[in-house]
Amino acid sequence: MKQILTLSVILILFSCNQSTNNDNKITTTVDSSVSFIPDTNYVVIKYDERKHDFFIRNGKTTELTISELIEIEGIIDSAINKHNLNVDSMFQVSTIGYKRQYLPYLNEKGDKVIWINFNCGSWWNENDKEELVEVVDGGNCHFELTINLTKGSYYDFYVNGYA
């Protein structure tokens, strides 16, 4: 029931408020009267230069606000919809049934960037609340993308092979 309510809020909130263009730039209008956090199946992992510098160069720690989480949700939805239009149905993805790891940071230009891991719920354990999951294969039980919140765009949308 909670997932249905959450999904309904997402659809209502974003079906009328976003538009996309062809270069993965998303414009989302946030209704500040709606207090919404995607679900309880995500964690925000603090950027740590000692752990994350191998794939994020010269990042700086930052946090996410509720308003930013709402904006991120709209960009995720648009990215998934665009992906699903271009692949066979067995390679399509959804946020339903996936746990998320958000790693927000400021890049060298000062842009707020969020790297997001999506993993099937069965992969989730207590350590995943503190450490990024590193996936070698994982099938379509793992996908990820990076959002530049400052620019309202996403890139590096990657879905592992079909499992």
Descriptive report:
By secondary structure, the protein is of the alpha+beta class. The protein has one domain. Helix content is 23%, strand content 26%. It is built from 3 helices and 8 strands. Strands 3, 4, 5, 6, 7 and 8 form a 6-stranded mixed β-sheet that branches. The longest helix is centred in the middle third of the chain and has 20 residues. It is globular. The N terminus is likely disordered.
Strand content: 25-35%
**How many independent structural domains?**
1
Number of helices: 3
Number of E strands: 8
Q: Residue-averaged pLDDT, rounded? A: 74
N→C terminal distance = 28 Å
Give a summary of the structure in a few sentences.
By secondary structure, the protein is an alpha+beta fold. It is built from three helices and eight strands. It has one domain (2-20, 36-159).
What are its keywords?
163 residues, alpha+beta, 6-stranded mixed β-sheet, 3 helices, globular
What secondary-structure arrangement, pairings included, does this model have?
Elements lengths: L1 H14 L2 E3 L5 E3 L13 E3 L4 H4 L7 E2 L4 H20 L12 E9 L5 E9 L21 E7 L4 E7 L4
Parallel strand pairs: 3-5
Antiparallel strand pairs: 1-2, 4-5, 5-6, 6-7, 7-8
